[in-house]
Amino acid sequence: MSWQALFSLQGHSPYLLGAYGVTLALIGLEALVLWRRSRARRAAQNTARADGTAR
């Protein structure tokens, strides 16, 4: 969809831009949560290795 078409939708462009914005925000939130979870898991594994309790 071109920018011209997006802004010529009879006043509906704020809704479309909002929907795209919310979608991008949710994708970013999901990436952040997954990154933090993997970082915590990696830290727990490193701690277990250092303690000698790794499986």
UniProtKB/TrEMBL annotation:
GO terms, biological process: cytochrome complex assembly; heme transport
Origin superkingdom: Bacteria
Keywords: Cell inner membrane, Cell membrane, Cytochrome c-type biogenesis, Membrane, Transmembrane, Transmembrane helix, Transport
InterPro entries membership: Haem_export_protD_CcmD (IPR007078)
TM stretches of this protein: 15-35
Bilayer disposition of the protein: Single-pass membrane protein
GO cellular component: plasma membrane
Localization per record: Cell inner membrane
Protein purpose: Required for the export of heme to the periplasm for the biogenesis of c-type cytochromes.
Family: Belongs to the CcmD/CycX/HelD family.
Name under which the protein is recorded: Heme exporter protein D
Organism in which the protein naturally occurs: Achromobacter aegrifaciens
GN (gene name): ccmD
